[in-house]
Amino acid sequence: VHQSKLDFFCKLGYGKQDICKVLENLGQEALEDDVLKELIRMGSKPQALENQAQPSQLKLVARGSCSTTPGLKWLGEDESDASSSLRPIVIDGSNVAMSHGNKEVFSCWGIQLAVDWFLERGHTYIKVFVPLWRKEPPRQDSPIADQHILEELEKQSILVYTPSRKVKGKRVVCYDDRYIVKVAYEKDGIIVSNDHYRDLQNENPEWKWFIEQRLLMYSFVSNRFMPPDDPLGRHGPTLSNFLSKKPVLPEKQWQLCPYGKKCTYGNKCKFYHPERPYPAQLSVADELRAKTKVPLVPGKEEERCQCFP
């Protein structure tokens, strides 16, 4: 009887130790319903239900991982595949704040707008560099608006103060632009600023290429942070590809020619002609020769002697 009941509840998924403990308390001749109630009262769960609760944790693995155990992660691996495919962001806090304040007021709200824009896109590494003396009370020659935002961003480990001190009453400020470019270069990220850093470009040739290729300019339109859709020009990458480590190439789509069969551009036409063999298109002169069925004369005599009826 003990073995039959043990096999029965084992098939239901309960552990042998819990079953034996309940049978010892209720007796070997206890009814199956009573044993089941006691197992539920003890908090024992079938192993099938316990295994169903675990996959939600095991699935939190970046796609493309080669690890045989899905629950394990390499040290330093990002939390999600989306965040790992986005480049780190380094924001020139002084440039953004002064731009939002119309170059008159150091507007901390502009920094918050820029940070929120990148957080909504899914960027996890965002650093803002601001000189340390901006923590001082505002003065008439350097007004600051919404200064409490700097404290909140510092608590979130987003804002970093560049060092500064006073020597004999004069403020000695470290060059914060060098911090910005250096961190962005080491992280292979994006610099958010409207400054071109020409002095740093002349200082280091590697920084020159990096600033030219990774500088993201912006504009504020009615308290809205707006970077351009084409950061490197009309023929450059899109904004999403510019901010991504793995750019996605758009599929080439052919656009129908608006002139249709009346087009006279021949193979120089950049549009698609369904009535013509693609991609080998004939030029206008070749089309006329094909229609008149006049043979081609090799050499320079073709231009002089070729005649059309």
UniProtKB/TrEMBL annotation:
Q: Which UniProt keywords apply?
A: Endonuclease, Hydrolase, Magnesium, Metal-binding, Nuclease, Zinc, Zinc-finger
InterPro entries listed in its UniProt record: Rege-1_UBA-like, RNase_Zc3h12_NYN, ZC3H12/N4BP1_RNase_Reg, Znf_CCCH
Question: Cellular component terms, GO, for this chain's entry?
Answer: cytoplasmic ribonucleoprotein granule; nucleus
Q: What are this entry's molecular-function GO terms?
A: hydrolase activity; mRNA binding; RNA endonuclease activity; zinc ion binding
Q: Which residues form the C3H1-type domain?
A: 251-276
Which sequence ranges does the entry mark as zinc finger (C3H1-type)?
251-276
Q: Which CDD domains match?
A: PIN_Zc3h12-like
Signal peptide stretch: none
Q: Which cofactor does it need?
A: Mg(2+)
Q: What family does the entry list?
A: Belongs to the ZC3H12 family.
The protein's matches in PANTHER family, at most eight in alphabetical order, are given as: N4BP1-RELATED, RIBONUCLEASE ZC3H12D-RELATED
What protein name does the entry list?
A: ZC12D ribonuclease
**Lineage, opening ranks:** Eukaryota, Metazoa, Chordata, Craniata, Vertebrata
